Structure formats: C-alpha cells, structure tokens
C-alpha cells in the first residue's frame, strides 16, 4: 500500500498535480485517502462585523445594568432637544434673565408694591418646591441625566407665569386701559407662555407639567394682587410704620430665596 501511494505521489508531482493532493490525507485506521476540509480564514470585513456585534452586545448589557431597562445604543445618541441652539441657550439662562429683571424692577421702583411682588415670587417658588415633593411626578425620559428632581409641576413655568401675570395685573390696575397697556399686558403673558414652552421643547418637562405649573403661578399671582389691593395697600395707608415690617419680610424672603434656590443654579445647568 505504501509503495502504491509513493508511486501515485510521484506521478502526480511529475504531472504538475501537486495542488490536487494538498487537501488529501492518508488515514491509517481505515487505509483510505480522505479529503481534509480546511477552515477558511476570516476576511477583515467579517472580523469587523463580529467585533461590532460584540461591542453592541456589551453596550446593551451596560445600558441594561445601568438604567434597569433595555435601550438601544442609538437611542442614547438621539438628540432630545427640538429647538434651535439659540432657543436652547435661552432656556438655560431664562432663570437668570427673569430673576435679573425682577431685581431691576424692585431697585427701579423701590416702593412697597415692588417689595410685595418680590415676596410673592419667593413664596410662589417655595410653594412649587413643596408641590413637587408632594406630587413627585416623574420628568420625561429625555430629561434623564440633566434634571433628576420631580417635574410636576414645572417650577420654571410657575415662576414665569407668576411674574408675567402679576406684571400684567400691575399694568392694568395702575394705568389706563389704553391700547398700549393692553398690548403690553398680553405681550407679558405670551412671553411667560413662550419661556414655559421651551421647557417642553427642550425635553425637560411634559405639557401637563408646564400647564399645571403655569396655572399655579397665575392663580397665585391673582391672589397676591388681590391681597395687595384689598389689604396691604390700605393697611400701609392707615399704619405707615408697617412698611418696615414689609421691608424686613422682603429681606427675609430674598435671603431664603438665595440660600435654597440660587445656590443650586449654574450656567451649565437647566
């Protein structure tokens, strides 16, 4: 048998058929020549595909362990903002703009009514924080990683609508109902509504959250204006020295507002 194989090999080699036998192997147990199936080498493209599948699986595992629910990796890269960059930036600094405008009005007017409005703004903000803890409504998924506190009601929408509603009522009660006065009052309301809408467009709140926040802020503004017109204003006329108590209350409210609210504000936060 071995002699026959050697002769066959010589014939094939001499005939240029050596390539035909590269895939053959002699098996002693059976005494036969069998073909050996070689394992194909992987192409670079197939190796890259396997590597990408492995990375994708690892990312799915990490996301599942981190957030508790399955999320595709592409969803992490998805943009959650639906507003242009300018409006997104405006949404970030809106709290500074509104607070700065309130301080400017208080310093510019420097009267009892301006102090009373500032006290109402601080109390409205405190009321919003309390309602958030009581309701404990979850923010939308698009706000994950940016804002982790409860979202119902929206404290930003509440603050915007309180200030815009109170300023509108102050215009309507302090000036004649001219076309300019009516247009200014409507413009203030629209500005507060627009800033509130940016919270939804930027993925930080849901529509019900800003609606509830805006309703609470506007209602509190109406109540606070009624207190001024019906009680505080007349009390200051009868007891002029009571304005010092109003001044101390305003200083206390401003201090509490700075300590409990503005200490958490940064330019890179929403």
From TrEMBL:
Write one Pfam family the protein is assigned to.
Answer: PAP2
Query: InterPro entries given for it?
Result: PAP2/HPO (IPR000326), PAP2/HPO_sf (IPR036938)
**Gene3D superfamilies per the record?**
Phosphatidic acid phosphatase type 2/haloperoxidase
User: What residues form the membrane-spanning segments?
Assistant: 177-198, 210-232, 244-260
Molecular function GO labels: hydrolase activity
The stretch of residues making up the signal peptide is none
Q: Which keywords annotate this record?
A: Hydrolase, Membrane, Transmembrane, Transmembrane helix
Does the record carry Transmembrane helix as a key word? yes
**Domain (Phosphatidic acid phosphatase type 2/haloperoxidase): residue spans on this chain:** 114-225
**UniProt name for this protein:** Phosphatidic acid phosphatase type 2/haloperoxidase domain-containing protein
Instruction: Recite the lineage of the species.
Output: Eukaryota, Viridiplantae, Streptophyta, Embryophyta, Marchantiophyta
């Amino acid at each position: 048998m071995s002699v026959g194989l050697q002769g066959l090999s010589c014939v094939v080699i001499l005939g240029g058929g050596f390539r035909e036998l590269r895939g053959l192997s002699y098996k002693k147990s059976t005494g036969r020549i069998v073909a050996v199936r070689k394992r194909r080498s992987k192409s670079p493209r197939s190796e890259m595909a396997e590597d990408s599948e492995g990375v994708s699986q690892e990312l799915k595992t990490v996301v599942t362990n981190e957030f508790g629910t399955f999320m595709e990796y592409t969803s992490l890269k998805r943009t959650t903002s639906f507003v242009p960059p300018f409006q997104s930036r405006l949404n970030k600094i809106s709290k500074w703009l509104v607070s700065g405008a309130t301080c400017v009005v208080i310093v510019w007017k420097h009267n009892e009514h301006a102090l009373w409005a500032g006290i109402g703004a601080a109390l409205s903000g405190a009321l919003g924080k309390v309602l958030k803890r009581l309701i404990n409504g979850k923010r939308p998924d698009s706000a994950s990683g940016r804002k982790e506190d409860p979202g119902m009601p929206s404290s930003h929408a509440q603050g915007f609508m309180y200030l815009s509603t109170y300023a509108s009522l102050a215009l309507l009660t302090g000036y004649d109902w001219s076309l300019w006065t009516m247009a200014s009052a409507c413009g203030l309301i629209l500005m507060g509504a627009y800033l509130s809408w940016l919270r939804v467009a930027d993925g930080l709140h849901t529509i019900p959250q800003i609606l509830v926040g805006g309703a609470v802020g506007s209602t509190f503004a109406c109540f606070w204006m009624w207190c001024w017109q019906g009680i505080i204003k007349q009390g200051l006329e009868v007891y002029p020295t009571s304005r010092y108590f109003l001044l101390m209350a305003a200083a206390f409210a401003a201090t509490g507002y700075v300590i409990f609210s503005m200490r958490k504000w940064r330019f890179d936060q929403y």
